[in-house]
Write a structure and sequence with these properties.
single chain, 265 residues, alpha+beta
């Protein structure tokens, strides 16, 4: 009985899945690759029985959402629309799923255990595509100009960036140079160490975030903050993700823009 009690907690958690992770595009030759928009949502891996986050935590999706899922693994992103990360995150992390799930779809970019190239693997999920499951369109890249035009279109419409991949490879369950993220801005994390009060229309609200990088460098972020964030900011010590153009000689990020509170699900 004592042994059973010791083993019981193990079954309350799923094992962490081995997922495809992206490296960064640095002007490699990507002719013959494919590209798709990088969706700013929550990574969701279906193991054939349940939805899991990249860390292996169970996502409590409503039963109607997953009732027509396949009996095999699929990998993708829970997403609603551009610039909607906070809504997606709060909806997905809720252990009691709400009606807000009706606004979310599962956009699939691979079928991990299927054989063949990327297009052959995605073909296996085609019959399951419907109101919930959507297959992310993979566009061919004939030259770097194709990538540039597509990235321009995505960013002009509020998208985060682009993913480029080698289509004639199996699913790779780790970080790989065969799949790259393409952005004009870099992004990283910092810790909130304080706030400054806003002026004018932001009087009485947050004007800027005071942040600290891992190396101790401090700076402020005033761009990218929603009204909801300015009125109800997260507590000091919260880790956030922001984007920036480059670092100055003093180690501070140039043109920092708040993206999101780091999600630990």
């Amino acid at each position: 009985m004592k042994l059973l009690l010791l083993l019981l907690p193990i079954f309350l958690f799923a094992s962490k899945p081995n997922l495809l992770l992206l490296k960064v595009y640095t002007d490699q030759n990507i002719t013959g690759w494919v590209m798709s928009e990088k969706l700013d949502g929550i990574r969701a891996y279906w193991d054939g029985k349940q939805l899991l986050t990249r860390s292996g935590k169970v996502i409590h999706a409503p039963s109607w959402f997953i009732k027509d899922y396949p009996p095999f693994a699929i990998d993708g992103e829970l997403w609603s629309k551009r610039g909607d990360f906070e809504f997606i995150s709060s909806t997905v992390r809720d252990k009691r799923p709400s009606s807000d799930w009706k606004k979310i779809k599962h956009y699939i970019f691979d079928v991990p255990n299927a054989k063949g190239n990327l297009f052959e693997r995605l073909a296996k999920i085609k019959s399951y595509e419907g109101e919930v499951i959507k297959i992310i369109t993979q566009l061919p890249i004939r030259s770097k100009d194709d990538l540039k035009r597509f990235l321009d279109e995505v960013e002009q419409n509020g998208g985060e960036g682009v993913v480029v991949r080698v289509p004639n490879t199996p699913y790779i369950g780790k970080r790989t140079s065969k799949a790259l993220k393409v952005k004009r801005f870099h992004d990283t994390e910092c810790e909130i160490v304080g706030y400054t009060e806003g002026k004018g229309k932001f009087r009485g609200k947050v004007g800027a975030i005071e942040c600290q990088l891992k190396d101790g460098t401090r700076f402020k972020i005033g761009s990218g903050l929603s009204n909801a964030f300015r009125e109800h900011p997260p507590k000091i010590g919260t880790i956030i993700t922001f984007k920036y153009k480059e670092f100055t000689k003093k180690g501070k990020p140039r043109f920092p823009v708040f993206l999101r509170v780091r999600d630990n699900i």
